[in-house]
UniProtKB/TrEMBL annotation:
It comes from the Bacteria. This is N5-carboxyaminoimidazole ribonucleotide mutase. Keywords: Isomerase, Lyase, Purine biosynthesis. GO terms for molecular function: 5-(carboxyamino)imidazole ribonucleotide mutase activity; lyase activity. Its EC number is 5.4.99.18. Belongs to the AIR carboxylase family. Class I subfamily. One of its GO terms (biological process) is 'de novo' IMP biosynthetic process. SMART domains: AIRC. Residues 1-152 form the PurE domain.
Amino acid sequence: MTVGIIMGSKSDWPTMEHAALMLEKFGIEYETKVVSAHRTPQLLADYASSAADRGIKIIIAGAGGAAHLPGMAAAFTSLPVLGVPVKSKTLNGVDSLLSICQMPKGVAVGTLAIGEAGAANAGLLAAQILGCQQPEIFAKVEAFRKEQTDTILANPNPAE
Ligand code: RP5
């Protein structure tokens, strides 16, 4: 598998599946797994520290609330980690966003937007990173963006 999509709970899947759907658009292989930083800490350590040896190139990690999963995953691997703040019930995901984006200097997590858009963009950004080395993925990203642009230009009337 090229991309590992992990999340803190099964309840994150309706958000995180948008990362998976985006990767599928570009034909990128991925695996999905519930890995909780606080409920299954040893699993997180094992997953992240073995990911590079297993051939994973990028980890997408989504979590909500006190969302330490992406940061802890990044602590266990030098692979790029893309963090997705899942919308929480009490603070609408602002807690998740701040938990993920405010990494102290020295361990990086690339943070996306809260919720579905962030998950989809994590998949897109993973494709763009992989596309730097793989021309066929780069071409698919270019085609995706052109189609998006053409669709808007072909129908600019908001009332139609
Ligand atoms: C986090 O707590 C998860 O990432 C999830 O977003 C949130 C709530 O988890 P559940 O109580 O739904 O399992 O760890």
